[in-house]
Write a structure and sequence with these properties.
By secondary structure, the protein is α/β, with parallel strands linked by helices. It has 18 helices and 11 strands. It has a domain of 202 residues: D-Maltodextrin-Binding Protein, domain 2 (3-Layer(aba) Sandwich), CATH 3.40.190.10.
């Protein structure tokens, strides 16, 4: 039985145990029930008199509703049930994000939460030795991680005489041109576009999802610099990537409305067969499977053949800066982070828990997730720390360069 199924059936098993064992023995069942009532009364009565057991005095820790949005109510309820059974003086309750002691979020929000002092430092509870570790773990704990991927419509590429997905940037450009040639715009038919970008200013994951993977795959990194006394200068690999995307636009190889469409809308268009290739997160695989198309996944096309480089995105949890009981909140935060493998299985995360990763049953049993795992194992993982102080300024310059490239 998988970890996930264990937690899903945890409560149901406890409810049905005595019924299965004692079916058909009504008299014995009544005697047993009476004995349990008497014994419970004695235990509770003594506990109340000694002050060792008082549910009314449980300390309440609140969590934001995103915890169930991300992982589902069944899993979180089972984990909370387990935690409260181990910590009889604590109780976990869901409340609004603004009032929660523990906040759940993905890394698109990490920078803004840190920069607005919304999170309490975890320094009293964890030891970090480097600035990188401080940024990654000093404010929140990672729960699950998802890898960057390149997805393609198998039927559309085959129709363009492409027998395999592109491995290099040159092969990608050739495939995009082939798709455009084999799918000319017709008056009464929906066009199929070779590729699509979402660079909407209001989309918090736009650059992270659409631009950064190209930069990492081609040997670059997002610079971390001090912006207090100088303007950031973009590395050549970043400007070259922006120029390349501008070339795709000038050749008509991109779906329209690059700066208007959101990442979520592009995923919908891919499932509708309107886009041949797209950059995605492993987090999106479950959504893409709801569509009626046949798709495959591969690593991001790189400038040349060689070992791939890819980034990870994730879901985090941290203690709110206004939490009045940080020590008690930390107990639950550490508990939930320790259940990362259960959470990873709940959302079919690949690679899952990082850097302590292993291939769970849900990965081994699914061909698509197994392939993603193989891509992950064969790649170098980028040390990307979202929300660095200089990233906002760098992204502003990137958008300026993109606007110039797309004129």
């Amino acid at each position: 039985m998988s970890i996930l199924n264990y937690y899903r059936k945890f409560i149901e098993k406890s409810r049905s145990f005595y019924t299965k064992r004692l079916s058909g023995r009504k008299v014995d069942l009544l005697l047993l029930a009476a004995a349990v009532v008497v014994l419970s009364f004695i235990i509770v009565n003594r506990a109340c008199r000694t002050g060792t057991f008082n549910l009314s005095k449980r300390t309440e820790i609140t969590v934001s509703p995103q915890c169930k949005d991300f992982f589902g109510s069944d899993i979180l309820d089972a984990l909370i049930h387990e935690f409260e059974g181990q910590n009889l003086d604590l109780r976990i309750r869901e409340t609004s994000r603004e009032n929660a002691d523990i906040i759940f979020f993905d890394d698109s929000e990490l920078g803004s939460l840190i920069n607005t002092s919304a999170l309490a430092s975890l320094a009293p509870y964890i030891h970090v030795e480097t600035q990188a570790e401080q940024w990654a773990a000093g404010w929140a704990l990672p729960l699950v991680s998802f890898m960057d991927l390149f997805v393609y419509n198998i039927d559309v590429l085959r129709g363009a005489d492409c027998d395999r997905p592109p491995k290099t940037r040159a092969e990608f450009l050739a495939a995009a041109r082939a798709v455009a040639k084999s799918n000319p715009p017709l008056p009464d038919e929906e066009p199929v576009f070779p590729f699509a970008l979402s660079l909407n200013d209001a989309d918090p994951v736009a650059l992270r999802r659409n631009l950064y993977p190209w930069i990492w795959a081609n040997g670059g990194d997002i610079p971390v610099i001090d912006t207090s006394d100088k303007k950031p200068v973009l590395p050549k690999v970043m400007t070259d990537t922006i120029t390349f995307l501008g070339q795709l636009n000038s050749e008509g190889l991109l779906a329209p409305e690059t700066f208007e469409k959101t990442t979520a809308r592009r995923l919908e268009e891919f499932t509708q067969g309107k886009i041949a290739m797209l950059t995605i997160s492993a987090r999106d695989i479950a959504f893409l499977r709801r569509g009626d198309i046949t798709f495959g996944i591969t690593a991001m096309p790189a400038a040349a053949q060689g070992k791939n480089r890819l980034g990870l995105s994730g879901i985090y949890a941290g203690i709110s800066n206004h939490c009045a009981l940080p020590d008690e909140a930390w107990i639950f935060l550490a508990f939930i982070a320790g259940k990362s493998q259960v959470l990873a299985e709940a959302v079919s995360a690949v690679p899952g828990s990082y850097p302590n990763v292993f291939s769970g049953d849900y990965i081994k049993k699914d061909p698509l997730y197994s392939k993603a795992w193989g891509i992950f194992e064969a790649a170098d993982i980028i040390d990307y720390r979202p929300g660095q102080p200089s990233e906002e300024e760098i992204n502003r310059i990137i958008r300026e360069k993109l606007a110039e490239a797309f004129k």
